[in-house]
Amino acid sequence: MSGISHSWNGTVLTITSDSGTSSADLKGEKGDDGVRGAQGASGTVVNIDSSLSKTGQAADAKATGDKINALQPTSQIISGSTKPITSGAVYNLKEEITNVLYTESYVPNDYIDSILLYKIGNVVQMQFGKMTKDVTNLTTTTLIGVLPDRFKPAVNTQRIIPVSLSNQMMYISITATGNIYIRIYGTLITGTQLYTGITYIS
Question: Which of 38, 72, 79, 169 is disulfide-compatible with 185, CB 3.0–4.6 A?
Answer without folding.
Answer: 169
